[in-house]
Design goal:
- This protein has helices at about 45-50, 55-60, 70-75, 90-95, 115-130, 140-155, 165-170, 170-180, 195-200, 210-220, 235-240, 245-255, 270-285, 300-305, 350-355, 365-380, 385-405, 425-430, 440-450; strands at about 20, 65-70, 85, 100-105, 135-140, 155-165, 185, 225-230, 260-265, 290-295, 310, 320-325, 360-365, 410-415.
- The chain starts with 18 loop residues before the first strand and ends in a 6-residue tail after the last helix.
- It has a 6-stranded mixed β-sheet, sandwiched between helices. Strands 7-6-5-8 form a 4-stranded parallel β-sheet, sandwiched between helices.
- The protein is α/β, with parallel strands linked by helices.
- The protein has a domain at about 70-110 and about 235-450: Rossmann fold.
- The model has no long low-confidence stretch (mean pLDDT about 95).
- It has 19 helices and 14 strands.
- Bound molecules: pyridoxal-5'-phosphate.
- Pyridoxal-5'-phosphate binds near residues 232, 269, 385, 388 and 417.
- Pyridoxal-5'-phosphate (PLP) binds near residues 232, 267, 341 and 387.
């Protein structure tokens, strides 16, 4: 009998990481601090207290290398973690490449993506701090459904502002949030000042993550029993996702391989950072030499076309100023189907690591991303989320480059979620209704003209 070729590299439940890994402890240069939007002075913990519980604020500014994961959070993680690492042998065969392709699959969580890794942690700390209700925004709906689930686990109310274009395109995601007990409103809404201001100017707007963030922040700032939760971008969110990379490092050791390239799609940067930052740390310590590659959509090219500068996190300018790659806080990206990749900025931590030259960024067109997703599904069976398709496309590009060079290459990417709630986008793709978007240069120039200025 032929020996079975290993495809899964699984760890036992006890190997769920006990800590989150904070890469800032290992970076040669500290991050630029967030600034108060009025005074342009660095903000302190008290400035954030209306929005977040102190435990999360402490994580946001922490320079400790390791932060212990509370037992109740690890206990919830145990339902789907350690997440599987697979070797994509049939995809390798279909590409006829000498490269090895591994993927860390985060779609096995109940909500279908990596987002519960932070949603559970945020709900836990809020419950501990006595919060009654969490408000948030969601684009495609993955974050909203992850937070709604976590709120159900910990007995919190959940209020979600869902970007209008997704609210209309994705009724099943909305239904899922409501099954978990959340209340969902299309954004911009008439419930907030920020929403009403946008509607007065652009009554037919598709909405954007920047606008929905303004609404959710406003609600939290005005109600002492409500706090705000963000699914990406912030340091503490990226921190919680590092369970992905820590597990992957152990699993790659099980596989007896070391990646030459580590890949993730990047909207706000959290699943990418979750896989990549533990590898950045290893690279900095001289333990590995992996190339680290973030993949963004060409229609929202934050890292590849946007300047690295201070900007607001939201369209209504309620958030602090953070230094990041940005297309301008008023930029409303084209309605590509990867709703989770349509944020105007990039996580300050990812932007900083890019600026330090410790990683690379590339962009992928929508049609190439879907072609890659379909090829992946036919080889591996898993239908990736439209966001994840961007990582798949880059993994395939790397494998084909290895083939052209006739050289081995070990590729590791994070498959951030499955696409079962995104089948309409696959229907549109198969029907030839999707298009590539040219770089929206004029709109970005206009949005960038509104960047905050400093004396
Ligand atoms: C939200 C989401 C993304 C984009 O967010 P990041 O913070 O950049 O990870 C990517 N993939 C999936 C499946 C998502 O749900």
């Amino acid at each position: 009998m032929a020996r079975m070729q290993p495809i899964q590299f699984n760890l036992p439940q006890e190997r769920i990481p006990r800590v989150w890994y904070n890469v800032t402890a290992d970076l040669p240069v500290p991050m630029a601090p967030p600034l108060h939007p009025g005074t342009h002075k660095p903000i302190g913990p008290d400035d954030l207290a209306p929005l977040f519980p102190m435990a999360l604020i402490a994580q946001e500014v922490s320079t400790e290398r390791e932060i212990e994961i509370p037992d109740p959070v690890r206990q919830v993680y145990a339902q789907w973690r350690p997440a599987p690492l697979y070797r994509a042998r049939r995809l390798e065969q279909s590409l006829d490449t000498p490269a090895k392709i591994y993927y860390k699959y985060e779609g096995g969580s109940p909500a279908g993506s990596h987002k519960p890794n932070t949603a559970v942690a945020q709900a836990f700390y809020n419950k501990e701090a006595g919060t009654k209700r969490l408000s948030t925004e969601t684009g495609a709906g993955q974050w909203g459904s992850s937070l709604a689930m976590a709120c159900a686990f910990f007995g919190l109310e959940c209020k979600v502002y869902m970007v209008r274009v997704s609210y209309n395109q994705k009724p099943y995601r909305r239904a899922l949030m409501e099954v978990y007990g959340a209340s969902v409103t299309a954004s911009p809404s008439t419930e907030t000042e920020a929403g009403r201001a946008i509607l007065a100017e652009h009554p037919d707007t598709n909405g954007s993550l920047g606008i929905a963030i303004s609404e959710a922040v406003e609600v939290a700032a005005k109600d002492p029993e409500t706090k705000y939760a963000l699914g990406s971008v912030l340091n503490h969110v990226l921190l919680h996702q590092t369970v992905i990379g820590q597990e992957a490092i152990e699993q790659m050791a099980l596989a007896g391989d070391e990646p030459d390239v580590v890949i993730g799609c990047a909207g706000g940067g959290s699943n990418f950072a979750g896989l990549a930052m533990p590898y950045v740390g290893r690279n900095v310590k001289g333990l590995s030499k992996a190339r680290i590659v973030a993949v963004e959509p060409s229609a929202c090219p934050t890292m590849t076309k946007g300047p690295y500068t201070y900007d607001f996190g939201d369209t209504g300018h309620l958030t602090p100023l953070v230094k990041m790659h940005t297309l301008g806080s008023t930029f409303i990206p084209p309605g590509i189907h990867a709703g989770g990749l349509r944020y105007h900025g990039m996580a300050p931590l990812v932007s900083h690591v890019l600026d330090l030259g410790l990683m690379e960024a590339v962009s992928v067109q929508q049609l190439d991303a879907f072609a890659a997703g379909v090829q992946f599904a036919r080889a591996e069976g898993i239908v990736p989320a439209p966001e994840s398709n961007h990582a798949v496309a880059q993994a395939i590009n790397e494998a084909l480059e290895a083939k052209r060079e006739g050289k081995a290459r070990t590729i590791l990417f994070v498959l951030s979620g499955h696409g079962h709630f995104d089948m309409q986008s696959y229907i549109d793709y198969q029907a030839g209704k999707l298009e590539n978007y040219e770089y929206p240069a004029e709109e970005i120039a206009m949005a960038l003209a509104g960047l905050p200025t400093f004396k």
